[in-house]
Amino acid sequence: MKMHAITVSILAAFLLCLNPPLEARGPAAAGKIVIARGVDVTSLDPHKAISSVDLNYCTTVFDALLRRTGSNEISPNLAESYRNIDPTTWEFTIRKGVFFHNGDPLTAADVVFSLNRAMHSKSPLIAFLGSLQNIVAMDSRTVRIVTAKPDPILPNRMAFAAYIVPEKYIREKGDAHFARHPVGTGRYRFVSRSAGDFVKLEANDRYWGPDSAKVKTLVFRSIPDPVKRVEALNKCQVDLVAGVPPQLIPSLRANPGVIVITGHSGRLIFLGINPLRSSGSPLSDRRVRQAIAHAVDRETLIRGALMGAGEPLATPLVQHTFGYDPSIRAHSYDPEKAKRLLAEAGWPEGFETELATPSGRYIRDREVALAVADMLGKAGIRVRVKVYEWAEYMKMLRTRQQEPLYLLGWGNTIFDADGILVPLLSSHSTISHYSNPKLDRLLEAARFEMNKDKRKALYRESLLLIHEDVPGIFLYEQMESYGVSNKVVFSPLHGSERKDSDKLELEEVDTLELKN
User: What is the pLDDT of residues 213-239, one digit of tens each?
Assistant: First the structure.
């Protein structure tokens, strides 16, 4: 009997170590936070994510092998450790005791399945994971990743959007079911969605880490009208508002229960050029593209239509990105030179074209598009602006059906030039409208160059080529403003729109009553 009692005690202790009681993991999550944004999540499947709105949702429900904790800091996540075995081989050790929301245990096989799935040709993530050549499970907890060539920023890629999903669940239920009922390992689990309205999540009570969710319910709401978003915060219907336009900041600052946080978003806003949309397009001529660059007055655009919520850019890279080169200057504002270039290209009377823009996705996006159209009109380019709802806009981008000109933003995804130049300007990217073999070679060389100084030199050469050939007009880095209830503990990552919503906390849980 005594021996039996000892055995039972040992077994009980062992089970507690494997799955400690909730009390041992800290206080139970309580309260509710509602986050209002201008657009809805486009896909609940993390391997179809393309925008920062999608990725902010993904980070709450799913985990990657690594996680960015600062602009230059990456920490272990589902991988408890990793090492670079040789220039092209990386080994990741997967944590013990991690379970998906449906109860399936995490194994190395799930990691292999997930990374291969994210590298599918139809996934928007292929541009970021293209260096991966072979992914192998050495045992149940060890994964080896072999790259085509030495990859200096593979940890950045593993911390960006290489989310891990359950192989067994997806193989049994299928991709379509998974896209409606997603399952991850994150601090929050999916509860429900009303397309175009909200996504509701709840704290994962089997979260693997010691720092579990502090808030029980998290809701992402889509409120396209910025006036209504701010009004909802002032009425305590939501807790955190993203994308507050400058003209509405004073009303929030007048509210003693609200804090306004403003800073660099890391988001490039640019005028994309799609010469593929129609045959014989004048945009296929470099001189026409240079004319457009000289017709746009960035300073006036930022002061006027944007109401100061941006900093001008000369290249696609913002200052927080590896490869940024401050010595490259933007094309001067010179409408007369723009007219001369148009005449040289055979368009002395100008031409007509269309410019597409979303509404409510970026700060004053519609107003910016109209202002750009007006500037181009003064140079002889007559522009008709077309406004789209965000989901339709994303569909057009993925199928390369954008208008000849289009307004788009791109986030500082991995704090490296590779995460901006490759998806936007490589001829191999699924969303690029540009093809330049020389640029492709430069970007390929930079992607696999281990020496930082040589990488910077390759990116400088790339940026100079881009500046000369003008595949797009790079307007400004958007300054992001958030309206936050003073009951919410919130600190955005500097130089990025990533919000780490799964780490939000409430100061006064008992007094907060929010409505859907």
Answer: 999 999 999 999 999 999 999 999 999
